Amino acid sequence: MTDVKSYLREWAMPHVLCPGCAHGIVLRSFLVAVDDLQLDQNKVALVAGIGCSSRLVGYADFCTLHGTHGRAPAFATGLKLARPELSVVVVTGDGDGLAIGGNHLIHAARRNIDITVILLNNSIYGMTGGQVAPTTPPGAFASTAPGGNTEASFDACKLLIGAGASFVARVLAATPIEMTKLMADGMSHRGFSFIEVISDCPEYFGRYNKAGGGAAMLTGLTLRDEGVAVPLASKRFVNHVPSSAPPPGITTGVLHREDRPVFVGVRKAVDDES
Amino acid sequence: MNRTELIQGNEACALAAVAAGCRFFGGYPITPSTGIAEQMVRLLPDAGGVFVQMEDEIASMAAVIGASLAGSKAMTATSGPGFSLMQEHIGYAVMAEVPCVIVNVMRGGPSTGRPTAPSQGDVMQARWGTHGDHPAVVLAPSSVGEVYELTVRAFNLAERFRTPVIVLYDEIIGHTRESVVLPGSVDVVDRIKPDVEPEQFWPKAPAANGVPPMPAFGDGYRFHVTGLTHDQRGFPTEDSALTGALMTRLNNKVDDHVDEIVQVERFMLDDADVAIFAYGIVGRSAREAVQRARTMGIKAGMIRPLTLWPFPDVQVAAVAEQVDAMIVAEMNLGQLIGEVQRASGGRTEIVGHLRADGEPITPSQLLTELTDRNEAAR
Amino acid sequence: MSDNTSGLVLAGVGGQGVVMASMIVADALVRAGHDVKQSEVHGMAQRGGSVFSHIRWGPQVDSPLVPVGTASVLASFEWAEAIRWVPYVRVGGVVIADVRTIVPPGACADRRSWTTRYPEIDPSLLLDRRLKARLIDAAATATALGNVRAANSVILGSVAAFVDVEQSHWEASIERLVPRGTVDVNLAAFRAGLEVAEAPTPAPAPEHRGFSGPHQIDIRQEWCKGCDICSRVCPEYCLEVGSDASLNVSNPDACTGCRLCELLCPDFAISISAPRQTAHVGAFNEPGEIEDESD
């Protein structure tokens, strides 16, 4: 296995994300997936919007496009249509992808364009300081929901299945091996693949909701207690969440997969793949 | 080989784009620009290009930027409200230095306004629509033939300076059919690719003309593109010296080449003592008014910028020096008149002929302005 | 600055409580009957950015900004920030500088060679100036009092030693502004800071940590942000986050090479490698096993 750091822009590290923020785990798992798939590093393009999740792409040594808030799927659409041989991966967040960019996301899914979207869901706006997001659970606190969130939240995977995404999966940032596998599956899928990663935001969501730091939030996702400090429990940390037996409340694994025609834009018909 | 065809302005725009090398169009339907998209979807496949109708104008502009980064010359076309939606990404294209062409077929505004009526109400939005300081290159054709010429030129300027270029015309030109001589081939400028090894490549290190060479994604150069203020390595920075250097360079790319970018038509100005300043469709009424005034013995002339931005300061100043009065005719309530006043520096009287009622400015109206001036002068 | 006003600059990085401290200073000055103006700059500071606050007071103050070379007191919560802001201090003024260092992500001058342009803790940078310098370790003081987050109150106490405001005003302001439940520790920290101002501690030297063991645990300290994910997931308790948020390999021999810490480190700061064929390791492993593991 190659050292994942060979896919990093080491000169740009350390990254800007807060201590305990799991987004870096997601980047790492993604780099392992790229390595597992043996993709040509020059033919991978990462496209991001604005927000904590989107900052990740700057540290990955591919062609990286840090676009505007919410519009990454639209940038990616132009990129993929103009240069179909690129493996195009969108890295977005819950605010970026589901609020300001919700329209672009569902339309990219509807078209079934052959890109992969990795959505890091930490239930809050981190970069701007902890505002309520479309994924903030009802009742949870945020800087713009000081009395608790009174809105309902999106189920991103259900939304994307409804919009026509042909590969939809969910995984926890706390389960990196599972995450790498699902990312590799998603990138290998022909058509629009969507992977929601349940990440954390200890700095804001954790603080406002007394959910603890990064370790507590991550382990809280997998175990319903903090027993991870017990050796046996922590040994289960990675292995106890196979997609067949998800922890209660968070369904993980491949939730939807279908084969349907891939969108290539209006162009001269080419002989189908040989 | 040249051929003559009777075509609409919007068709001419599409034909010119493809001739200039455009291979990607992303757009969203909006009156009165839709004809361009309807032509592009027919032209692009045979030219080896690709067309996509996006979910809105924000996405259209994003897709255009994505396609340009992938190495395609790319264009979108829109009108008023859609142009407003594109503004954020026009700024992105300026900052990230992504060549692309935006056509805005102007209609009456603000808001939904009068979708089928002509207007020149977006002149200032074309200059200052996106936030922050930025250069702008905006071309304003006044005939179907000129739509063709300036659309080609827009691509060439965009590629040369790595900046978005806006083609601005109004609903009348978009929908007018004229016979146009279509050239068999056009001069095409392509972006400069880097000649260094990928390891040595810094995506924002400028060449001598201030423009950094630009590889496409997938060419073997791995680089970062961001709308954040960045250094020559393309990576975000908060260093004020680097910020200032970037801002200066982005603006100087255009400012240092104003002489080459600015185009102005001078019509019957040599001995004129009254001039009409007009652009786009109004330039045609102005030309007619000047010719009629001449038959009446009035020494009238016209200055017509084909480049609205950068503004032709020097050319306008020269006319101001010469004439007793300059009539600024615009189909808006006064957008470029302020620039004319600024460039004239008080050397001549500036008179506005402004209307924003959805009707074009006619030759008779401008002739009346000229005769009124003439009588007042006696 | 007109003669009858005084200026104070507070500087630190995000999360240190600079803004809270500056509110307390301003509140105390108001209680003491001054006209007070205060202005702060913070933004994405929670990600390592600089936070600073200017406070001016006197019979009448027109602008909150303290001009360069006029501040009577600079209180810096972090070493580099002290160096950055010291030009604001007037000749004969006071600098209270915490010797703790927080290397922000942006401080790396050349990440290819892993050097940073973080200033050395060289006390002469402050002590050789024509001003009164107090080098303190507020975090250590606050930790000793039971809550490291009260470090800002320690610094506040040191500030109070040089600002002519009655102690009762300071304490009233602290009681009003700090989170409920932390009043006592903050008051204690404040009083400790007052004392510390009279007895500065020398600067601790930065340390580099690393380890070679049965499995090699390589820690890139300059990338580690001191979150406790690795230490909490390690089944063998090999890792420990110190009170200064640095990561230590506390029990190297127990590492089984499961790589949980490496996979779950958000900062790419941990690398676990199979045992190397060194004299030390060879005593525990057959050569054949070593090759298998490294594949």
Give the tags:
B: alpha/beta, Rossmann fold, 40% helix, 22% strand, globular, C: 295 residues, alpha/beta, Pyruvate-ferredoxin Oxidoreductase, domain 3, Alpha-Beta Plaits, six-stranded mixed β-sheet, two-stranded antiparallel ribbon, 11 helices, 12 strands
Distance between the termini of chain B: 53 Å
Overall 3D shape of chain B: globular
> For this structure, what is the CATH class of chain A?
Alpha Beta
Could you report the average pLDDT of chain A, rounded to the nearest whole number? Answer: 88
What is the CATH topology classification name of the largest domain in chain B? Rossmann fold
Oligomer: heterotrimer
Percent strand of chain A equals 15-25%
CATH architecture level-2 label of the largest domain in chain B = 3-Layer(aba) Sandwich
Q: SS-based structural class of chain A?
A: alpha/beta
Low-confidence stretches of chain A: 224-248
Q: Could you tell me which chain pair has the largest interface and how many residues each side has?
A: A-B, 39 and 48 residues
The helix-strand sequence of chain B is EHEHEHEHEEHEHEHEEHHEEHEEHEHEH
Question: How would you describe what is shown here?
Answer:
The complex is a heterotrimer of chains A (274), B (378) and C (295). Chain A has one domain (4-257): Thiamin diphosphate (ThDP)-binding fold, Pyr/PP domains (Rossmann fold), CATH 3.40.50. Chain A has a seven-stranded mixed β-sheet with strand order 2-1-3-4-8-7-9, sandwiched between helices. In chain A, helix 1 crosses helix 6 and helix 4 packs across helix 5. Chain A is built from nine helices and nine strands. Chain A has helices at 23-37, 72-82, 94-100, 102-111, 156-163, 176-188, 202-208, 214-222, 231-239, and strands at 44-48, 63-66, 87-93, 116-121, 124-125, 131-132, 167-172, 193-198, 253-257. The radius of gyration of chain A is 18 Å and the shape is globular. Helices cover 40% and strands 22% of the residues of chain B. In chain B, the strands form three sheets. In chain B, strands 2, 3, 4, 5, 6, 7, 8 and 14 form an eight-stranded mixed β-sheet that branches. In chain B, strands 11-13-12-15-16 form a five-stranded mixed β-sheet, sandwiched between helices. Chain B has two domains: 3-182, Rossmann fold; 266-377, Rossmann fold (3-Layer(aba) Sandwich), CATH 3.40.50.920. In chain B, helix 10 links the parallel strand 12 (274-277) and strand 13. In chain B, helix 1 packs parallel to helix 2 (34-46) and helix 10 packs across helix 13 (363-377). The model of chain B has no long low-confidence stretch (mean pLDDT 97). With 378 residues, chain B is an alpha/beta fold. Chain C has 295 residues and is an alpha/beta fold. Chain C folds into two domains: 6-196, Pyruvate-ferredoxin oxidoreductase, PFOR, domain III (Pyruvate-ferredoxin Oxidoreductase, domain 3, 3-Layer(aba) Sandwich), CATH 3.40.920; 216-294, Alpha-Beta Plaits (2-Layer Sandwich). Helices cover 30% and strands 22% of the residues of chain C. Chain C has helices at 18-31, 79-85, 124-127, 138-145, 151-160, 167-177, 183-196, 229-233, 260-263, 279-282, 287-294; strands spanning 6-13, 35-41, 50-58, 71-76, 89-98, 108-110, 115-116, 132-136, 216-219, 239-241, 247-249, 270-273. In chain C, strands 2-3-1-4-5-8 form a six-stranded mixed β-sheet, sandwiched between helices. In chain C, a hairpin with a 5-residue loop joins strand 10 (239-241) and strand 11 (247-249). The longest helix of chain C has 14 residues, at 18-31. The model of chain C is unreliable at 108-115, 203-213 and 276-295 (pLDDT under 50). Chains in contact: A-B, A-C. Chain A binds chain C through residues 3-5, 8, 10-25, 28-29, 127, 129, 174, 176-177, 202-203, 213-216, 218-219, 228-229, 231-232, 234-235, 237-238, and chain C through 44, 46-48, 105, 108, 110-112, 222-223, 225-229, 231-237, 245, 258, 260, 263-269, 271. Strand 2 (63-66) of chain A pairs parallel with strand 10 (224-226) of chain B, so a sheet runs across the interface.
